[in-house]
Amino acid sequence: MRSLRIALALNPFTLHRRGGDHARELARELISRGHAVRGFGAPPGAIPRSGRSLMPGIGGFMPDVIMAYDGLSPAGSHSAAMARRLSVPLFMFEQGFPVVGHPVERVLRFVGENLWGRRLRKTVEHVVALDDLALRQAQGFGIERDQISLIPGGVNQSKFRRGMHSHLLKRHGVEGRVVLAAGRFQTGRGLEKLVRAYASTLGASEDWTLVLAGEGPEMSNLRALANIKGIGARMILVERPRPEELPALVSAATLMVDPDGSGRGPRLTTLGGLASGTPLLGVPGSLQASLVERGVGMLAEDGSEAALAHILRVAASDPGRRARWSAMAQSLTVEELAWDSVATRVEQLLLGESGNSTPSGALRIA
User: Fold this and answer.
1) Are 325 and 295 within 8 A, CB to CB?
2) How many CB atoms lie within 10 A of CB 89?
3) How far is CA 313 from CA 28, 220, 316, in A?
4) Domain-embedded: residue 200
5) Which residues contact 69 (CB under 8 A, 6 or more apart)?
6) Contact 135, 94 (CB under 8 A)
7) Range 97-123 average pLDDT
8) Global pTM?
């Protein structure tokens, strides 16, 4: 198998939110397979690297391929310029960007799309979408569908695993089965519909508790809504759980729910829950709807309160179905979501297309 020299280009201003963890783990996997990898735009030591280059910069590294995260950032523009200059293929790795994201990031993306977006579209060889929202946005940006691969993941299976106990649930006195929704408490995410749907189905049962984990301006409104609906004792708000507390929380949950049809759910938390064998309930347009359709949970017909209530009722009433979803989630993790599996798919993509002026479909994974 051919060994590649791979340049990873990252946006230093959004490294902690967009692509940093993915680039670090993917670099480690690719290095272990004999490829030479070097990160650009990240602080020293943030991205595993191999060897040294005699000259600084991407040009001095003389890569066979450039992999850029956050393509509409200045780092993406520089990557496109270097790809053209060096005549090497450019692969963009993108996670979905929420329309209501950070104001500075929104401005930078607007500037990028208008100043260098056209050149970027002409230069990019292939886009790796890390979630469903990224896939839709890449198509909206003008990238052809056959130039996009949806490769969600990866998941650290030593960190996210089945059978853990959450001290957060214990601290709040939660016993029995848990419906978990994680992420920002903000308007438009469907959390109000979820609270009402839960109140009309499982809220009266002492065997079930709705747990909302995250932070945001709608926390007090959600708590007030739960009290109005009479489920204040059956809904728990876990404010700002620490990253190291999330694996046990999603592992201990009976069901995860992503009610956000705009695709703003927590990507890593959702994938970690699947690795823990926690089934996922979602609505059309949710961040990992395509994975739900693979048999790891259930997708509502639409994003309405009635549709959410229906899937909650079905999932809660059928332990056998939940067990099948759980088994499928863990199987899918091993086959596609674990870092080893993600690296294999990316490696096939790079080896199938690097060095070709026209993308080859032989190894493309759509």
Assistant:
1) yes
2) 22
3) 43, 26, 5
4) yes
5) 8, 9, 10, 11, 18, 19, 22, 23, 75, 76, 92, 93, 94
6) no
7) 73
8) 0.88
